[in-house]
Design a protein that fits this description.
The protein is mainly α. The protein has one domain (about 1-110): Serine Threonine Protein Phosphatase 5, Tetratricopeptide repeat (Alpha Horseshoe), CATH 1.25.40. Helices cover about 80% and strands about 5% of the residues. It has helices at about 1-10, 15-30, 35-40, 40-60, 75-90, 95-150, and strands spanning about 60-65, 70. The chain has a two-stranded antiparallel sheet with strand order 1-2. β1 and β2 (about 70) form a beta hairpin. α1 (about 1-10) runs parallel beside α4. The termini are far apart.
């Protein structure tokens, strides 16, 4: 399974790597002896989880509607973070996993900045609408006072 995941990793065939998560869980539940023996090696276990986490991390970034726009699939990113945490649990010295944590942190920072920018735009639009409403009320009062003056004359 590990060799197949390495090959898919090299080929950037992330869609196919994701299917291995279910195989991993099934073999774990069924207590497949060969699989369990492989998992006794923490570095091997960590590598297996790393490759699956890498696939989910890659799938968390999708092309958006516009050119150069990214869309983040949070379900895939959550799954990747969870798997990478498990990979680091089994081998905290896994350098590839540590670099992937850094990449995931950058993805989250990007998402946070984008969300913050959206809120700033929303606040700006609301501020403009409030100013327009205030201007409307001022004009309404001016029109009312003008009507009163004209009706008194």
């Amino acid at each position: 399974m590990l060799q197949e995941l390495k090959t898919l990793y090299i080929l950037n065939a992330h869609d196919f790597s994701v299917a291995y998560l279910e195989d991993y869980r099934s073999a774990f539940r069924m207590k497949d002896e060969e699989f369990i023996q492989d998992l006794e090696n923490d570095e091997l276990h960590s590598a297996l989880l790393f490759y699956i986490a890498h696939a989910f991390t890659s799938l968390s970034l999708q092309q958006g509607r516009g050119a150069g726009e990214l869309q983040i699939e949070y379900a895939n990113l959550d799954q990747a973070i969870e798997l990478l945490g498990e990979a680091l649990y089994f081998n905290p010295r896994n350098g590839s996993a540590l670099r992937l944590v850094e990449t995931q942190a950058q993805i989250l920072q990007f998402a946070l900045m984008r969300t913050q920018k959206r809120w700033e735009n929303i606040n700006q639009i609301m501020g403009q609408r409030f100013q327009l409403y205030e201007e409307y009320l001022r004009q309404e009062r001016s029109a009312e006072s003008l009507r009163e003056r004209l009706s008194q004359q």
